[in-house]
């Protein structure tokens, strides 16, 4: 006989006993007298009735003891015999609602949900016995009072999952969607050494343990924790924090290790291949059972103490070889073989990033998808700069070009030198690359940053000083921290133009203003040490920078005003005689003469060319030496210089084609 049938027999025995009780009394008056009396007659009648119910009571208790689900419930959640009896009555009424009419009959009233006083009568509990708020039934939220009052006459309701579980349903765990199995069968272990260390440490702990794995979203934390559970001989389930107690309870009833993530969200396309989801923050519930093991994936170490032993590991980033292997493993074999994108080997991509790129590879959009995924939300306090220029467009002296090429090599080969050759020990706290572009205005510092960003395949963002610098104490540091964090996460190059405004020299502390200004500079010094991206500081006042900044810069490039050969090339690039499609633009220009006689920077040459072009267009002519010289006089006049050179204007300029 199963437990439900045995409980029905028990209730039937109580109904028979109740009828016997009523037949022994005068229904009109003896009911009230029987309640108020305490004579031997009533005790004798009650003892006789208990003897009638005793066989059915023993059979019901035996059925509960023999039920496998009841045994699992007791073992997993620490339930006692009386807890099981209480839940059995609640579950029976949940699964078979007409039984509430039987309880109402026993209570001499209408149909009613189970109450502690009725349970005490059905199961023959001693006087005063009833579930309390500290018992496992309440702790695990297996059942709760309907009205929230802890009274013996309060009706209770069982949790729907519990009723489905004891009824033998196979899909009970999905009722609330609080536990999702993590199946890592066939998933490659990306960090075997770390998995072995974690497994050994967990087995060595004899008390409750919380395994905390720290890493960025999408780095495969949940997958590695599920592989840890498998190494411990247990399945793993991802828990939802919307109802932590029910979630932990579900994991224990499944015999699985609970896995918590601080951004569960919706399922990621690559979740079963080593990638985590992205979404809202979560919290781990405390498992009250001694010796429990909880697995927690976090983006940062927890600050609150753990009730047991917390073991924390940081998930290492994938190496270039691992990223390439993962890309090849998941590439669609139906696609034509194509080289692995450069970002796979050069950027710190997570498994989720790689899988998103693989999914878009067939459409030729892998790079764009990865960039957008890394960037996430709109970057604040930053302005995107286009990068239309290439190396051939940048006109600088040979030493400057060599320095820029050296900087590009350092960024591209950083991992090879620091990791492959094991030289990271020389700069353990510095993984990024910072450079200083110093020189007069208009010598190509910003353009060089644009060329470098394009060559490295990075988007270039310039820091908006007006949005970063704030008069309130500590606010500037907060905004700078946000800027650095965004740039690291998004894999972009950050340009601090007019860097001397932020990275100036520290001064002696004479008042509070000096003190807080020095604090800002100290913060920047510390943050540059830990910055993992590419940062370029541009200034035309190198002497105003603090010496401590110069020591932290990987490369310092001193831009000089262009010499005659550079100016000649700049004039030819800025003002050719014809466009790329053959449309005439200028006539009679002597680029070498202009380079020899006009001591201008690259930016000034661009300004002169634009002004001369507008003058010529307004006059209906092509650009001539006359237009260029007039525009040059105005440009030099901006800084108080006078151009005395004279060149005769061409005698027969070509008319502008209409």
Structural summary, described in words:
The structure is a single chain. By secondary structure, the protein is α/β, with parallel strands linked by helices. It folds into five domains: about 5-170, no CATH class; about 180-315, Rossmann fold (3-Layer(aba) Sandwich); about 320-375, no CATH class; about 390-560, 3-Layer(aba) Sandwich (Rossmann fold); about 565-635, Helicase, Ruva Protein, domain 3. Helices cover about 45% and strands about 10% of the residues. The chain contains 27 helices and 14 strands. The strands form three sheets. The chain has a six-stranded mixed beta sheet, sandwiched between helices. A six-stranded mixed beta sheet has the order 9-11-12-13-10-14, with helices on both faces. Strand 5, helix 12 (about 245-255) and strand 6 form a beta-alpha-beta unit. The relative contact order is 0.06. The model is unreliable at about 40-45, about 265-285 and about 650-658 (pLDDT under 50).
């Amino acid at each position: 006989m199963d437990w439900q049938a045995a409980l029905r027999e028990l209730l039937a025995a109580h109904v028979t006993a109740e009828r016997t009780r009523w037949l022994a009394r005068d229904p009109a008056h003896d009911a009230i007298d029987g309640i108020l009396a305490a004579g031997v007659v009533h005790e004798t009648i009650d003892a006789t009735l208990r003897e009638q119910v005793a066989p059915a009571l023993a059979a019901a208790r035996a059925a509960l003891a023999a039920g496998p689900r009841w045994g699992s419930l007791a073992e997993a959640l620490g339930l006692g015999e009386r807890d099981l009896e209480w839940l059995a009555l609640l579950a029976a009424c949940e699964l078979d609602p007409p039984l509430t009419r039987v309880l109402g009959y026993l209570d001499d009233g209408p149909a009613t949900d189970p109450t502690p006083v009725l349970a005490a009568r059905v199961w023959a509990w001693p006087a005063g016995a009833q579930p309390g708020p500290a018992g496992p039934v309440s702790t695990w939220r297996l059942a709760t009072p309907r009205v929230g009052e802890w009274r013996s006459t309060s009706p209770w309701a069982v949790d729907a999952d519990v009723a489905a579980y004891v009824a033998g349903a196979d899909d009970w765990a999905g009722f609330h969607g609080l536990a999702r199995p993590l199946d890592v069968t066939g998933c490659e272990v990306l960090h075997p050494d770390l998995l072995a260390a974690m497994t050994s440490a967990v087995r060595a702990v004899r008390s409750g343990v919380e395994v905390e794995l720290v890493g960025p979203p999408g780095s495969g934390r949940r997958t590695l924790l599920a592989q840890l559970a498998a190494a411990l001989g247990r399945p793993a389930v991802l828990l939802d924090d919307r109802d932590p107690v029910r979630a932990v309870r579900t994991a224990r009833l499944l015999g699985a290790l609970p896995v918590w993530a601080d951004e569960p969200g919706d399922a990621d396309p690559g979740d079963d291949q080593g990638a985590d989801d992205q979404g809202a923050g979560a919290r781990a519930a405390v498992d009250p059972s001694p010796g429990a093991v909880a697995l927690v994936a976090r983006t940062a170490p927890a600050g609150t103490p753990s009730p047991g032993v917390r073991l924390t590991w940081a998930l290492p980033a994938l190496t270039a070889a691992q990223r390439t292997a993962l890309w090849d493993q998941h590439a669609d074999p139906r696609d034509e073989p194509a080289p692995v994108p450069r970002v796979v080997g050069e950027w710190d991509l997570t498994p989720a990033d790689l899988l998103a790129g693989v999914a878009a590879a067939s459409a030729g959009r892998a790079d764009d998808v990865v960039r957008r995924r890394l960037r996430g939300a709109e970057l604040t306090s930053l302005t995107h700069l286009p990068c239309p220029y290439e190396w051939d467009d940048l006109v600088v002296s040979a030493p400057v070009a060599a320095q820029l090429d050296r900087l590009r090599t350092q960024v591209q080969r950083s991992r090879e030198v620091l990791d492959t050759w094991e030289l990271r020990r020389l700069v353990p706290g510095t993984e990024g690359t910072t450079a200083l572009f110093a020189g007069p205005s208009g010598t190509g510092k910003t353009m060089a940053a644009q060329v470098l960003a394009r060559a490295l395949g990075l988007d270039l963002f310039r820091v908006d000083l007006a949005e970063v610098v704030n008069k309130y104490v500590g606010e500037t540091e907060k905004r700078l921290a946000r800027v650095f964090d965004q740039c690291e996460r998004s894999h972009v190059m950050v340009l601090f133009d007019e860097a001397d405004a932020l990275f100036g020299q520290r001064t002696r502390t004479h008042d509070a203003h000096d003190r807080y200004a020095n604090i800002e500079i100290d913060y920047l010094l510390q943050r540059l040490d830990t910055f993992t991206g590419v940062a370029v500081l541009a200034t035309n006042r190198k002497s105003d920078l603090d010496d401590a900044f110069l020591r932290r810069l990987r490369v310092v490039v001193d831009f000089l005003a262009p010499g005659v050969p550079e100016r000649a090339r700049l004039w030819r690039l800025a003002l050719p005689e014809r466009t790329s499609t053959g449309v005439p633009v200028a006539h009679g220009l002597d680029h070498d003469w202009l380079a020899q006689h006009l001591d201008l920077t690259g930016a000034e040459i661009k300004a002169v060319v634009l002004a001369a072009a507008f003058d010529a267009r307004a006059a209906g002519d092509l650009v001539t030496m006359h237009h260029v010289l007039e525009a040059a006089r105005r440009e030099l006049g901006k800084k108080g210089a006078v151009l005395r050179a004279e060149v005769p204007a061409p005698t027969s300029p070509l008319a502008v084609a209409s």
